[in-house]
Amino acid sequence: MKVENILTVKGAEIVKVTTSDSVHKTAKLLREMRIGAVLVSDDTVDPAGIAGIISERDIIGGLAVHGAAALDMSVDTMMTRDVHVCGPSDTVDDVMSMMTDKRIRHLPVMENNELVGLISIGDVVKNKIAESEEEARALRDYITTAG
Question: Which domain holds residue 98?
């Protein structure tokens, strides 16, 4: 199974904030959308590009260091700048390994230097469960017809 299959099922909607947006605004967006991370673009450089990613984990880290003042800080003070990416043709197993090795839960999906989606560990797990259920169904059908 490939990343493109995940995007087909979940859709390719991409939620972004800018580097100058406040952490408070970003936290509210995460809550409203019921998501764990958003991509960060830098309007001064390339609005279509990725300047970073900010997750709930980044915000909690900022709150631990700066207290409530972190909410008034800009996203670029807390975002992760070293963004790992995957491609639509990458296998779900490869993506799962990368997420585990790098200890990350979200991966932007890039194709020909263009952002085409964002997948989460939840999307990967859902895909693996569906794959396992399909395999079990196929084995049951085989046993039923072979016996």
Answer: 3-146
